[in-house]
Amino acid sequence: MLLVANIKPASATNIHQTCNKVCKIITDVNKNSMKKIRQVIQELNEKCGLANTPIRAERDARYNNATFSAIGKTPFQAATQVTYTLSENVTKKKNVMAVFCGNKLCKKGTHLRAKGKEVTCPGHEDCTATIPPETTIGDEKRSAAECISELQSDDRPLVISHFTSDGDSAAVFGASEKQGHMIENLKDLCNFFDSQRKQTAKAPFSSHMFPGRTKAMRESMQRRFALDLKLRCRTEYENCFKHFSSDLPLMK
Ligand SMILES: [Zn+2]
Fold first, then answer.
1. Nearest residue to 104 (alpha-carbon basis) of 135, 83, 69
2. How far apart are CA 74 and CA 51, in angstroms?
3. Where do the domains of the chain lie?
4. Rounded distance from Cα 114 to ligand 1 centre (Å)
5. Could you identify which of 19, 87, 129, 243 might form a hypothetical disulfide with 121, taking C-beta atoms 3.0 to 4.6 angstroms apart as the criterion?
6. 129 alpha carbon to ligand 1 midpoint, in Å?
7. pLDDT for residue 10
């Protein structure tokens, strides 16, 4: 309340204590809101005469640290927290329908273990971790399955037919397994063209293809070329999509 009123908190500890008091309420409010969104989608589908029709959704994960930032620095994974969101593709709003928050951090567990007590996270009293520290943080199969169980907790659960995602197909397997019904994987343009950029940037070109006195200069030129090519290809694709009024078979 103080933060909303633009009153600065007295200290970091104060923010922490406030968070501890309201976090459960905020989680419940968000969960109820997402449940409402799912009900609205059901009602919308019924109004359009598409009751019990599978819907399209998109999903992605965000980490507290970039997953590749630990390379060469630590034998552990860089990220310790993950937020996995599942959004609907039924309305233009693309509301979030389900969220999975994975957390490996647990101060109490670390403290108890340092004192010589045998505790495992998650599971002990007041544990803040939601996933065991030895699991892979980027396991999208588990995260997607958790989101699907969230959908299945409804009285009339939504069924998903298509997933728009990055190249990680593990999520689709996880979700399909949980749902007991195959989901088709669609590629998201952002990630798709970004993989094209990465491939072009490391592709072996002839040594005289890019101008530059040193190797670093030539590599820099290749990276710029890759970025330019990506943007041009994406523009071409989007214009083509518009021109053929989103008729994919005609585009082919
Ligand atoms: Zn713990």
1. 135
2. 51
3. 12-187, 199-252
4. 12
5. 129
6. 5
7. 76
Q: How many residues does the chain have?
A: 252
Q: Determine the distance separating the centroid of ligand 1 and the alpha carbon of 204, expressed in angstroms.
A: 48
> Which candidate, 175, 171, 122, places its Cα nearest to that of 152?
175
Residues with CB under 5 A from ligand 1 (ion): 106, 109, 121, 127, 129
Whether 134 shows a pLDDT value over 80: the answer reads yes
- pLDDT score for 139: 85
Tell me the ipTM for this assembly: 0.94
**pLDDT band at residue 169, thresholds of 50, 70 and 90?**
confident
**Residue 250 burial (C-beta neighbours within 10 Å; 0-12, 13-18, 19+):** exposed
C-alpha dist (Å) from residue 53 to 17, 110, 160:
45, 47, 9
147 Cα to the center of ligand 1, angstroms: 23
Q: Which two tokens stand for residue 194?
A: 């970004």
Dist CA 28 CA 40 (whole Å): 18
**What's the 82 CA to ligand 1 centre distance in angstroms?**
16
Whole-number Å distance, alpha carbon 64 to ligand 1 midpoint, is: 19
Answer whether 1's CB lies under 8 Å from 14's CB. no
Task: Report the separation in Å between the CA atom of 134 and the middle of ligand 1, taken as the mean of its atom positions.
Answer: 13
Q: In angstroms, what is the span from residue 109 Cα to ligand 1's centroid? A: 4
The residue-averaged pLDDT of 227-243 equals 93
Given a cut of 70, whether residue 119 has pLDDT beyond it is yes
